[in-house]
């Protein structure tokens, strides 16, 4: 059989998977090798596909997902069966929730044994387990269906609202042989996987009419707007209408944060006072208070641009739904917009400008302070200064206070450069996102991590060093989840529930793998270490020691964390 497989007239499932990926321009795999996909990883690498091997499947999935977001092509995550498959499922579900195109390809056990639950090696009905967390889930049962299976997965991942797709490949299919000519004919090159979805002209006209009547309009840009890569049209529409805009965190940089129409520094006031709100690739989910008071005016009207019609009226009535892809919708709005049709009240712009200036001055006071030890603001102020002249650097950010405060402190000037916890608010994305961004772009990455968030997938610094990636990880070390001064309320010797090791030397971890470690205890030292690390282009980790009492419970979403009477008394 081995001679037959290697014969020029025969092929097998392994080769067909690799050939199908190459045919569709999918040139990178993020994964963890093992039974039954090790030879698939080897063959892919031998045939020119870049393979990035990880310590944990969740990080591989996160890397694939963020690569998909940045490239608009599905990122490919490869895992082993059962436990490895399940490890990646968090990333797959997160990709679906956030609208990132990703395909998780997992090997699986013998279908005949699995279906009868006879106890096969790593037995699990993976396809059905994946269905609730993916846009689609497929299983290939014959090698001649590999090409069509991947084609279906590609379309499901990138068309409409993107998301995660699961593709199940049983070991028997990977190893099965067939005639090479038959195999070649079975491959599919996907044509136009993301066809334009044009909005109805009447919906565009209605949206402009609603905006034209507004006195206090506001545009909210979501990461769907950033994903669309319609940067020039979005900026032109904002500037042509003169409407103030508020970027969600991963939409920062679509227009520079220091743009005169940006109202990010007056977010709360803008949301509460706006009478017409235009959502571009943003959802009225928990990140926007579900569009309800007291955060929003109860009489505000909404215009919403989204590719999914079911997103309309999800929390608030939408007065002017515009259903279509973001690029086509914004282009249609510009084409129908007449000069002077939309004119926000000058008093509205003045009110926002005053609020912005007040909050900017208050932030400047925080950043100028030099407490000993550092707090979040003084440390982030140092990072802000270093990154100000390096807009090409990708910024990955996760944690609680580390995420919330960095979002407000560090300005972005280019689109799709800020990558963070997103819609789910999930922790543990940092190292995977950093690796995916570095591999997909070839650009330097700074990952600003809370110490707890870093702990989820911190061993991926070995992956960073193994592939010599230009990633600088900054661990905000305050010795705990949220903060490091919690206590054991029983009086026992064990630390409190949110306490981590106070004197952790995170910088020594990366030194073990050949990277460069730094320890920073003041803003000047932090700025110098970050400057040197970025200039070197080498993997580095900065242990940024900050005050254990800095930070608040659950960051900016403490209202979602009920406080017990016991906790309140203590």
List the helices and strands and how they pair.
Layout: H1 2-6, E1 10-12, H2 13-23, E2 28-31, H3 38-46, E3 50-53, H4 57-71, E4 75-79, H5 83-98, E5 102-108, H6 111-115, H7 126-130, E6 136-139, H8 146-158, E7 164-170, H9 171-175, E8 177-179, H10 180-186, H11 201-212, E9 217-221, H12 223-227, H13 231-241, E10 245-247, H14 267-273, E11 276-280, E12 301-306, E13 320-323, H15 326-336, H16 346-368, H17 376-387, E14 394-398, H18 401-409, E15 418-420, H19 430-441, E16 445-450, H20 451-457, H21 460-466, E17 471-477, H22 507-511, E18 516-520, H23 523-536, E19 540-545, H24 565-569
Parallel strand pairs: 2-3, 2-4, 4-5, 5-7, 6-7, 9-10, 9-11, 11-12, 12-13, 14-15, 14-16, 16-17, 17-19, 18-19
Antiparallel strand pairs: 1-8
Helix pairs in contact: 2-3, 2-8, 4-5, 4-19, 11-15, 13-15, 17-18, 17-23
Query: For the largest beta sheet, what order do the strands appear in spatially?
Result: 3-2-4-5-7-6
The CATH class name of the largest domain reads: Alpha Beta
Give Rg in angstroms: 25 Å
Taking pLDDT < 50 over at least 5 consecutive residues as the criterion, the unreliable ranges are none
**CATH H-level name of the largest domain... which superfamily?**
Thiamin diphosphate (ThDP)-binding fold, Pyr/PP domains
Q: What shape does the CA trace take?
A: globular
- Gap between N and C termini: 71 Å
What would CATH call the architecture of the largest domain?
3-Layer(aba) Sandwich
Mean pLDDT: 95
Q: Sheet with the most strands?
A: 6 strands, parallel
Number of domains: 3
Tell me what portion of residues adopts beta-strand conformation.
15-25%
